[in-house]
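Q: I'm teaching a short session on how sequence maps to structure, and I want students to see two examples side by side rather than one. Could you give me a first protein with its sequence written out and its structure tokens following it? Keep the formatting plain so it prints cleanly on a handout.
A: Of course. Example one:
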Amino acid sequence: MNQNKMGTMPINKLVLNMSIPIMISMLIQALYNIVDSMYVAQINEDALTALSLVFPIQNLMIAVAAGTAVGMNALLSRSLGERNYTKANSIAMHGIVLAIGSSLLFVVFALFFSSFYFEVQGIEGRVYEYGMDYVGVCCIFSMGIFIQITFERLLQATGRSMISMVTQATGAIINIVLDPILIFGLFGMPMMGVKGAAIATVIGQLCACLCAYYFNTKYNKEIILSLKQFKINTTYIKEIYIIGVPSIIMGSISSVMTFGMNQILLGFSHTATAFFGIYIKLQSFAYMPVFGLNNAIVPIIAFNYGAKQKQRIFAAIKVGIFYACCILVFSFGLFQLFPQFALEIFNASDEMMVIGIPALRIISFHFLFAGVSMILGSAFQALGHSFSAMVISLLRQLVVLLPVAYCFSLMGDINLVWYSYLIAEVVCLVLTIICMEYFVKKQFNSIEA
């Protein structure tokens, strides 16, 4: 059975076996985000700026969906490690119900608060119209991304990362194919511009959702999904959110940070804000493989913690750190060597080139420190210390990064703003290592090797 693989397969092989399919699917996800921006950039720079301003909302949706799924996944994997299959099935059903409920919150936002979101930033004209079109479609039809992420985590929790990759790839490929058709009106379709990009995105998400549901019901035999005997258990909801809420807050903090950076950069120009949106998409190519490692390592650590396999937990953390650092050092090299090529993909203007080339080189220095922090953060979540991971993320992005970026912006040189990333990452790394040493001494001495 797959839970035996989680507890017996050599750690290096297990991490690669589970993470590579997730990495591939996440890289495809990053690709379709970039394709969205590539095509939208062909409309005009205002459209690209609108996507940059909408990104915090999209990121918040993913944070809520993924955070809830992290809580579900950690508890489910721990229950499987303890061979408590009844609890595992119930936790899976609770995760699905919570995902549906969460998506409805974003429907409410789209209907009643999206206009305020842009007005409070002083956005008007074409940027406002483009932003309203995009955020309206993505939020009203957000149930696709919520259910997709939940079902994918169920597959990953039982070691079926390859099938999870297929579902994500299916949605991403559909999005990539539909983007030019709906944006530019190819093959007899009406030209819908930015709204077409949003429609392509939600269609891809809904298709991936249907695939993930099918694969769970057909292949995921360790988990039985049924409403017949399902009853809401507030204890399970509490347990899911004890782990998941810190993860949600961490993702939300990222949205707040992006929102804040957009406001700082609007003080320089709309072009600077449009570039920052491009950077976020390019950064995803560096981070998505590491997120794939995180998604694989969380259930591995949670399972072996439930099975009291101390050495396997430490081995998984060490292997994860090694691969994360390799990925991010490679990404650092690409950002240093090919910044102009990266910007040309998005039809960058001369003004954006002047801003973007030095910015990509400066920002990418923080990649050299991020790998250790990211893997240890996922270990915190798997071991029930999500609150610590949340606090460190809050300190990094809101207490250090944003204030430092704002102070540097007052000097009038936009290049100084980008150094805030490096400063924040170094602070985060130091705090993460200190916390991990404390947890090892406190939590693992009672577990036999």
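Q: Perfect. Now a second example for contrast.
A: Example two:
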Amino acid sequence: MQIQNEVSLKSYNTFGIDVKAQKFVEVTQIADLQQLLAQTTEPILILGGGSNILFTQNFEGLVIKIKLKGIEVIQENEDFVWLEVAAGEVWHELVLYCVAQGYGGIENLSLIPGTVGAAPMQNIGAYGVEIREVLEQVQAIHRNTGEIHTFNNESCNFGYRESIFKNIHKDQYVITGVTLKLSKKPTFNTSYGAIQDTLKANKVETLSLKAISDAVCQIRSSKLPNPAEIGNAGSFFKNPVIPQSQFEALQKRFPNIVGYPLPEAQVKVPAGWLIENSGWKGKRFGNIGVHTRQALVLVNYGGGDGAAIRKLSQDIQASVLDKFGVEIKPEINIV
């Protein structure tokens, strides 16, 4: 474990923002992480895959890059398998591993960027599936005491792109691993989005974990830019949830508005639709802009400034609120 000084974070965030960390260290052992948390008095930033963060300035403190590795079967029976997965594992590589092993439950979450440690933090979800549906436990270290705590599914208080680690316990814990309960006899979820159409186009006659994973990868690749080619962090904003009465009022003014009914007379409205219909899709401002194919994605075309992207996001929020009376909030962390 070697602490480095004045390290560029450009290659550690998918936006490709060139800021510096005053100090930087990669951690591969839990004991080293506990030691760092106990000894460091300066500000600390925990970094996973860097796919859900926007840097707007240099970080004056210690950036800890989590590189804890390991995938282990800790229990199994005829129907299910329990996997203990370290926080530093790449999420999509875990999905591919599970698909290859015949473990079902996260195939719809293929190609989501980032590491396993970030997955429960924001309850990642896509194409009708969320991680809370398969998550048994989260293991985390308390930043102040260094103690390892275990949170079961219920205590994580999962919501839409929310968990206890993003609100009540924000910046109090460092997630070190998760336990997932996956199915050996999976049921396939193909009802959401364009999965069925993609499977049909691919001439898939017999459903499988791989066929669904491949379809999801194909859909995501067609909609979202590759961070290796254009700097971005995927969906910048969360889809807002509004009362059904408000949605019905908006329908009268905007008949083409899209919405998905939720329990308790709520409706989820695609933030991308709101942004696109506020005139932002494809807009470019120097080195930054809104993606040409997906209005939900803000991009860095190269040499972009994080503060400028934050300002663009704020302008978009104000514009959507002014036109539709709906508040959209960032899904990513802004530092």
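Q: What should students look for in example two?
A: Point them to this: Residues 71-223 form a domain with the Uridine Diphospho-n-acetylenolpyruvylglucosamine Reductase; domain 3 fold (CATH 3.30.465.10). Also worth mentioning: The chain has three domains: 4-66, 71-223, 231-334.
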